[in-house]
Amino acid sequence: MPVLTDIAQLAVCPAEGAQGDLGLIAKAALVWESGAVLWVGSAAALPAAYAEWPRESAGGRLVMPGLIDCHTHLAFGGWRADEFEQKLLGRSYLEIARQGGGIASTVKATRAASEDELHSRARSSLDAMLRLGVTTVECKSGYGLNVEDELKQLRVYRRLAEEGPQRIVPTCLGAHIVPPECKENRKSYLRLLTDELIPQVADESLARFFDVFVEDTAFSREEARTILHVAATHGLRAKLHADQLTDTGGGVLAAELDAASADHLECINANSIRAMAKAGIVAVSLPLATLYLNQEPLPARALIDAGVPVAVATDFNPGSAPSYDLHLALWLACTRQRMTPAEALKGATAYAARALLRDDIGSLEPGNKADFVVVDAPSVNHWLYHFHPETVVRTVISGETAWKRARIP
Amino acid sequence: MPVLTDIAQLAVCPAEGAQGDLGLIAKAALVWESGAVLWVGSAAALPAAYAEWPRESAGGRLVMPGLIDCHTHLAFGGWRADEFEQKLLGRSYLEIARQGGGIASTVKATRAASEDELHSRARSSLDAMLRLGVTTVECKSGYGLNVEDELKQLRVYRRLAEEGPQRIVPTCLGAHIVPPECKENRKSYLRLLTDELIPQVADESLARFFDVFVEDTAFSREEARTILHVAATHGLRAKLHADQLTDTGGGVLAAELDAASADHLECINANSIRAMAKAGIVAVSLPLATLYLNQEPLPARALIDAGVPVAVATDFNPGSAPSYDLHLALWLACTRQRMTPAEALKGATAYAARALLRDDIGSLEPGNKADFVVVDAPSVNHWLYHFHPETVVRTVISGETAWKRARIP
């Protein structure tokens, strides 16, 4: 039952309120007990009841909710570093695919990897993410693309969830692409998804969401409807990779299917923006992917102005976003998506929690989990302005210090 | 006299050769003695003479020359975090300046700061840069803008150079802007530069270069000629901030003045590119600044194709580039300037050394200083592809380990 004081600025990040509303408190104090926030406010107003509780100092730093990365493909086999150079030299995706690269190469490497191998790689990424202040991670499958290997990826996530310290939210992305061996017979793959994979994932409670990549090169709107209706009957809520490379009306589809979020949205149209605003669906922006792909980012300001909550995530994967650095993604949300630091932070806390249908994290309102980060900066504005790689000094999950920087700058 | 082995890939970064020529050696060994490189090559070809020398392991990692940040404004007073938010909200530079922001506010804060205060802030940035593998830093004055405060900034750099471990290359940027108090009488400021500041800087050997910001809002080409001719007679070689916001023919001017480098160049024209290629002048690209300023980067590919050596630096300063993260700048040189990882690395090693007229650093050719970095990646391509903040595990300057990561990932 400690009291954290000497907080220069505390960002509550209330679940409700506008994109830029962080509920900032200067010279704040934070009280927690049994892993949950008990009280938060100005240190001068600390209730007498907590006056004698043990105190810890934040050292005059910024405190904010633990960061939530609400879109990653955490566990995969292999890397694709040489493709990065190829793309910079102007080689097209098709050329690269013809040489055996692209997503199919990751599917091959992921199928070839054992559960232990996938786990060990993902474990090391998660540990590094903890040092970046990331306390909750959404993790997608989608590189197995058959029942056995999709379940293998999801079991890696279950193991990571059991180990802790981070909270893991698993999503089945069986509908990432049609795997090479089913190219001539799409229907057989759709049947595999609806008749085998979805029921088994639900049976073993291996995922909270089912995600479909809606795109010419992946799945049609009609196929997404079919798959996600079956997923819904098995208790798996919809997520969509939508409007990434072309406008497929993904925002409207997300509203129709009551998706927890629609992700990417670089090519979203005005109709889809209105539909998402009306339905209150979170838009998950992925600024690392747009930069790696040399693509214009989604119209973040238009979305925010229309009242759509915009989350920010890494999209960590070996092709279009080979970085798990959520701090960097937030900085790019400012510099490339023209979001203010406050708007960006809300996108990796309260709104990211909403994209995961979690109302107990992402905000330091009393009753929520005591997941928080101590950052060596005087304010949120300063944190995302003076970018450097050693800003987080302590990461706390359920009130327990999960990591602390040895040498504080 | 150690031998470093277990090097997965060693990037020699030869001083000569094309932008993408790193002289890569797989399974390499590196031998040094008395602070200088003695031998480098394939481990299998290690000469018998070194066979009994003490060995160290690079752990199957990448080894490359210590990084050189050839354009920074390292020592300054104050920060301008709130301007960052203002700019993201669309406020113009003029509006911000009218509210007391912009460069004038940094001049005010730098003049108000004591030498000790400036030193302590710069010291802490340098320490952090060491953990990013940066072994040489060019440092500009330019926030004093009177004799006393320009010398104060340059004396901070002298102190940092004496302390080590990094090599410091000081540049006087007295011609950054005309200071507010001389707005009505530019000529008095030009006289201050040519008759007082330049002679005193030369007398005390406080700088190697003199830099002029050529732009409508700063100094004209003609003024730059006058200033830099005087600087040359005092042994200070020219550098230029050129073609950043408008095309002022800065590349042609740099060639005419035999500048060591022309920096920024976002608006460079074809004529200037030809002139720089012919004169062999280094173009210093500053990808952090273009992103913070929401500006198109310089035409790196056109420069490289024309044969201009392109360096990459941070431009670290509190306004347009509040980050000293050279690793991030190199990643942006790839993703935003479409340079390959090899081209980017050459820009922060051999070509950055050339921009500082140093032929003893920036490359691991025998005879050069043994400044090198051990990086937790299997190759240069992989290092700038899988971006994360803990890649450097050891920084060595003159053969001595200046920093080592405690927990190796």
Gross CATH architecture of the largest domain in chain A: Alpha-Beta Barrel
Task: State the name of the first-level CATH class of the largest domain in chain A.
Answer: Alpha Beta
H and E string of chain A = EEEEEHHHHEHEHEHEHEHEHHEHHHEHEE
**Low confidence ranges of chain A:** none
Quaternary structure classification: homodimer
What's the pLDDT, averaged over the residues of chain A? Answer: 96
Largest sheet of chain A: 8 strands, parallel
What is the CATH superfamily classification of the largest domain in chain A?
Answer: Metal-dependent hydrolases
CATH level-3 fold name of the largest domain in chain A: TIM Barrel
Shape type of chain A: globular
Number of strands of chain A: 15
Q: Report the portion of residues of chain A in β strands.
A: 15-25%
Q: Label the structural class of chain A.
A: alpha/beta
What is the CA-atom radius of gyration of chain A, in angstroms?
A: 21 Å
The tally of structural domains of chain A comes to: 2
